[in-house]
Design brief:
two-stranded antiparallel sheet; alpha/beta; binds glutamine; elongated; about 290 residues; single chain; 2 domains
């Protein structure tokens, strides 16, 4: 079958769900991933034919897209900080906003600091600590998560990307009473977290591919206690950061003021709220007094 005919079928079947632009980007991503064909291939070879085996693959992906399965789950990969991370239903798909948080940390430390001790709380796929490990010199990086299944994905990414992040299982909400985890006996220079922060009331604004396919455990918080993870992370960081150590958090865009107040009430100075590329309050940094 002609590749351009398949592209037309993609548009006729999927544009109503995703819009033309996104369908274009899915199609090109898939032909690059599966067949190693570049984006401009149709401009050069408008009559390119793909074989039966390739047809099966591209139509299988089409039927999964119709069911609103995330493209990253179809190919099993998400790109983050120019690295390829394995992802599945047990972990949140890395988001571009989170790259901005990682870039903030790298801008603060890349050329100046060595041997930083770093902890990521609620690590999921491990995208935050692994990309920090790979971009910083001699950093000692730790990542914790409550989910054993998420940690399996993080460990696999660690191995595939040649990083040495130390992952361990722990429940963020009971860390203050945790005495048996040896990784938590030390102090850190940097603590980061992108914990669950979407309120149930915000579910209506979310897309089906997120709600149906990504882990609720990593996304949602109760409407009446939306900062429950931030309370514990901020308390923990106040105790476990070195003096002048930095806390970086990804936050709910509607709760910037409230999250900032949490840091102000605790042991933090020079608190900075930043917007993401979409103009929403999305991340916050505080320095421990
Ligand atoms: N930013 C993510 C979303 O909009 C949520 C991430 C999180 O809850 N930590 O789906």
């Amino acid at each position: 079958m002609l590749l351009r005919e398949i592209k037309n079928i993609y548009h006729s079947e999927l544009d109503a769900i995703y819009g033309k632009e996104e369908v274009n980007s899915f199609f090109y991503l898939l032909i690059e991933h599966y067949f190693d064909l570049e984006r401009f291939v149709l401009a050069i070879q408008p009559d390119l034919v793909i074989d039966k085996k390739q047809e099966t693959i591209i139509f299988q992906a089409l039927s999964e897209l119709k069911l609103e399965k995330p493209i990253q789950h179809i190919i099993g990969i998400a790109y983050f900080m120019d690295l390829e991370f394995k992802v599945n239903e047990d972990v949140l798909i890395p988001r571009p906003e989170t790259e901005e948080l990682v870039r903030w940390i790298l801008d603060d430390f890349k050329d100046t600091a060595k041997n930083l001790t770093i902890l990521d709380m609620g690590t999921g796929s491990g995208c935050i600590p692994i990309s920090l490990y790979k971009n910083l010199t001699d950093a000692k990086v730790f990542g914790l998560d409550i989910s054993a299944d998420a940690l399996k994905v993080a460990e696999e990414n660690n191995r595939l990307l040649g990083a040495s992040v130390k992952f361990f299982q722990a429940d963020m909400l009971s860390l203050m009473s945790e005495t048996s985890t040896k990784e938590l006996e030390q102090k850190f220079d940097v603590i980061i977290s992108n914990p669950p922060y979407v309120r149930e009331l915000e579910k209506a604004d979310m897309r089906n591919n997120v709600i149906d396919h990504e882990p609720s455990l990593a996304l949602f918080v109760p409407d009446e206690d939306p900062l429950k993870f931030y309370n514990t992370v901020v308390n923990f960081a106040a105790e476990h950061l070195n003096e002048n150590g930095c806390l970086y958090l990804e936050i709910n865009q509607y709760l910037g003021k409230e999250t900032k107040q949490l840091l102000e009430k605790s042991n933090f100075k020079t608190i900075e709220l930043r917007k993401d590329m979409f103009g929403y309050d999305r991340m916050i940094k505080g320095i421990r007094k």
